[in-house]
Amino acid sequence: MGVVNVTPDSFSDGGRFLRSEDAVAQGEMLVEEGADLLDVGGESSRPGSDPVDEQEELDRAAPVIEQLAARVDVPLSIDTYKPSTARACLALGASIVNDISGFGDPAMTAATAEAGAAAVIMHMRGRPKTMQSEPRYDDVVGEVKAFLVDRALAVERGGVECIVVDPGLGFGKTAQHNFEILRRLGEFGEIGRPLLIGPSRKSFLGSLPSALPVEDRLEGTLAAVSIAAVAGARIIRVHDVRQAKRAVEVVDAVRHG
């Protein structure tokens, strides 16, 4: 899953693709590099970020979804927790809703079900503005799993047939929580839903002794990508599609011969 951030303030590439034409060109390039689907977002969810209103988010994301739907042959995901944004983008060609708030709003489930779209349910503790304020868990994997199971059942009852779960690396979790999730990622297979993992360039990779900045986290990202693939992740969300694709090809060759 290639990332297309139509935002001025995303942690990794904020501002680079704020113009619709730049975002569309980036999406097309990611497909050329091997992306199997694209995730388009109009609001940053980096730690400490402020929310934007619905109209601003829609003004950023909708033209990109509409143009990509006409120009690429892969499924499009709208990364939003706002039902109105999801509904509009589904009408323009998106077929997946990626909700960082875990489909807590029944209106989001309704919009997704009515469009016959797929749902990506992510775990996040709190909101992006405050989620990294001393997050604590007794058992991070057990608690995140329980949340995802509960939300997946609710979304299924709401009429959504295709449901993917995402433990939410970097969302309300310390670096050690994120490493523990990766170490125990296979346990999420017990949920019985396809698993999405998004380690790309995240701050926990910069917490290591090398303390690398965002632009130098490719190798760490690829290590996390490979671990996720070995553990059975079905979708891996990344900025660096070509490199991640090559890493996953090696994992697949080892796993499947």
Overall description:
The chain has 257 residues and is of the alpha/beta class. The protein has a single domain (2-256), classed as TIM Barrel (Alpha-Beta Barrel), CATH 3.20.20.20. The chain contains eight helices and eight strands; from the N terminus they run βαβαβαβαβαβαβαβα. The chain has helices at 20-32, 54-71, 83-91, 106-115, 140-157, 175-183, 218-230, 241-256, and strands at residues 2-5, 38-41, 76-79, 96-99, 118-122, 163-166, 196-197, 235-236. Helix 2 links the parallel strand 2 and strand 3. The longest helix has 18 residues, at 54-71. The model has no long low-confidence stretch (mean pLDDT 92).
Describe, in short, the structure shown.
With 257 residues, this protein is an alpha/beta fold. Helices cover 41% and strands 11% of the residues.
